[in-house]
Design goal:
The protein has helices spanning 3-38, 44-62, 67-70, 82-98, 115-124, 141-146, 161-167, 185-188, 193-206, 217-228, 250-259, 265-268, 273-282, 305-312, 348-356, 369-372, 393-397, 412-420, 434-442, 449-471, and strands spanning 75-79, 105-109, 129-133, 151-155, 173-179, 211-214, 246-247, 288-294, 317-322, 338-341, 360-363, 378-381, 401-404, 425-427. By secondary structure, it is α/β, with parallel strands linked by helices.
Length: 472
């Protein structure tokens, strides 16, 4: 270990211990807790976070004191969003199915947005999953008194001090999944003194892990290059080849399984069956376009008069699956007829009207978008003109040409697709220009579009098997 590395390690440990055991508890007891008590009707975000973390006490009080809940767990995983849960879900499902009933998982989550999904997962496996809400508002040290597993997995970039302190222990195997350099400009462009200092920090963080699996081939390449020449931090006693970063996106396996023909039966025979039959009988595959996880703002794609004419003439069929059904009535459809399909509804009248006067169909169903993509040749994915684009892998692996907005700064899926099929994914800067992009892309020949997708699967499955063999 170099002298610079040694100094940085000491500084990081001192800083982390001060934050976890002194600064953060002091801030909580001296400032945050009194603030919440004195002003119960203000600072709602603090109240919300405090109540979220307090539910740890209720969860542990209601836990069944079964032997499996008093013995050490075999694995701990930390996640901060539903997207990250989806990233690690194939691993969780595999381990719960393939490992004996004594296998116990500790699931740590830092956001209310994923709480419902985590609680449902625990409900299905009450004696095999323990849950804990990551303390950020309340003292962080509580986590270190709860966690028992000697394997810890972090996802993407949740490098909280308490998690890093535990993961860097010599008796803990520390793993990073979906590692990415997205938004890490200093790593991708290491120029200047400031970037070099920042990179010293990132070198320390990434070299803390025993195993790193990258979110895309681009991240794999960048991280391998970055770590091979970095001196800050330690490398857990491993040589360069042993700590080589590998590409593994577990979502590919999950999505591929959902869109495979043998798993589409529930969709084909479910409530949407009349609508799906209408699509197949009335339009060719190339005439169908879906807007997945659409937001009201994305109704601007209909600003093109040529696009609207093509829909009204029945030359194209456009289906929208909203991200939030309750506010999608605000969409500006530019006087195009909108036909809403709701669960529990008889669609026969809507489909008759649709035959007489073509328009846009809004499918207000949840949990079917991934499978529904298989019925369309093209997919515009929502969110890219707002906060961040939604899943691009789902339509891609379903065989669609994919369009999205420019907010792809957090999407490693975009990097993955672009590295494999640059002609199959298009960024639409202005919504009103969408139809121009759409017509231009459709003129390009598609050479074996599913071949690259199948190749991706052939790459992912061996990597997953190797990962399981090495880490479990």
């Amino acid at each position: 270990m170099s002298s610079l590395s040694f100094v940085f390690t000491i500084l990081y440990y001192v800083f982390s211990y001060l934050v976890v055991y002194l600064i953060q508890p002091l801030v909580f007891f001296a400032f945050l807790q009194p603030l919440v008590r004195l002003f119960p009707n203000r600072f709602s975000f603090l109240h919300q976070r405090n109540n979220f973390e307090l539910r740890n006490q209720t969860t542990m009080a209601l836990s069944t004191p079964a032997p499996s809940l008093t013995l050490p767990a075999q694995l701990a995983i930390e996640i901060s969003s539903e997207g990250e849960l989806e990233q690690v879900r194939p691993l969780i499902d595999f381990l719960l199915q393939q490992r004996p009933s004594e296998f116990v998982l500790e699931l740590i989550f830092s956001s209310e947005s994923v709480e419902k999904a985590v609680l449902e997962l625990q409900r299905r496996h009450p004696r095999r999953i323990r849950i804990f809400r990551l303390p950020l508002f309340r003292p962080m040290g509580a986590l270190l008194g709860w966690i028992t597993a000697k394997k810890l997995i972090l996802c993407r970039y949740d490098f909280y001090p308490s998690l890093m302190l535990y993961g860097r222990r010599n008796d803990v195997k520390f793993i990073l999944l979906s590692a990415t350099t997205k938004n890490r400009t200093s790593i991708r462009n290491a120029v200047g003194v400031v970037n070099s200092l920042i990179n010293c920090y990132w070198g320390f963080i990434f070299s803390s892990f025993d195993k790193i699996m990258a979110a895309s081939p681009l991240d794999e390449k960048i991280l391998n290059s970055f770590l091979s020449g970095h001196v800050c931090g330690r490398v857990r006693g491993r040589d360069r080849e042993q700590r080589k970063v590998s590409f593994l996106d577990l979502r590919v396996l999950q999505i591929a399984d959902r869109v495979s023909s043998e798993n589409l039966h529930d969709l084909q025979e479910g409530e949407l069956k009349p609508f799906l039959q209408y699509l197949l009988q009335r339009f060719s595959h190339e005439q169908r376009l879906v807007v997945g996880s659409g937001w009201p703002i994305e109704g601007e794609i209909f600003a093109s008069a040529d696009f609207r004419r093509a829909i009204l003439r029945g030359e194209l069929q456009v289906t929208i699956v909203p991200h939030c059904v309750h506010n999608f009535s605000l969409v500006n459809s530019y006087d195009l007829p909108l036909y809403y399909l709701f669960p529990g509804q008889d669609f026969s009248e809507q489909l008759r009207l649709l035959e007489r006067r073509p328009g846009v169909v809004v499918v207000a169903f949840r949990g079917i978008l991934c499978e529904l993509y298989t019925y369309f040749a093209d997919a515009f994915v929502g969110g890219g003109h707002g906060r961040s684009v939604h899943s691009l892998l789902e339509p891609y692996l379903a065989g669609c040409r994919v369009y999205c907005g420019p907010r792809i700064h957090r999407s490693t899926e975009y990097d993955l697709i672009y590295s494999l099929s640059p002609q199959e994914i298009q960024v639409v800067e202005n919504l009103s220009d969408f139809y121009r992009y759409y017509t231009e892309v459709r003129k390009l020949p598609r050479v074996s579009p599913m071949a690259t997708r199948k190749y991706l699967l052939t790459q992912i499955r061996p990597h997953f098997e190797e990962f399981i063999k090495e880490c479990f």
